Amino acid sequence: MPAAALKPKPLPTQSSAKRPVQLDLPYEPVEKRPLPPGRPREWYVTHNRRLKAMRLAIALLDLGVYVPNQARNEKIRSTAELIGVHPPSDTTCHMVRALMRYSR
Per the record, which residues fall in region Disordered (predicted)? Predict the structure, then answer.
């Protein structure tokens, strides 16, 4: 018997399934791990800024803001307050709009 016949078929994903795949609920975030040591400080600042921008972009999409020009700095900052994140800088607000632009 060929080795390929012994391998179990992978479970279908949302895109390959004939019917919608049930999501595992309740959602639990991945366990946080410390960031790798020895990097320059700027790397950590940029990394955390990207994470914050992604969280804000997702929250804005959930609120119905789909176009970057709808996401003014005031809207992004009010969304940050809504989800419990410190108010973002102008640089982070720019990054949020960039993420929304390039995800299309």
Answer: 1-23
Structurally, the chain folds into a number of domains equal to: 1
Domain of 87, in residue numbers: 39-104
What confidence tens digit (pLDDT) does each residue in 45-92 have? 999 999 999 999 989 988 888 899 999 999 999 999 998 889 999 999
Is the peptide bond prior to 26 cis by the omega test (within 30 degrees of 0)?
yes
Chain centroid offset of residue 83 CA: 14
CA 21 to chain centre: 21
pTM of this prediction exceeds 0.85: no
Is 43 among the domain residues? yes
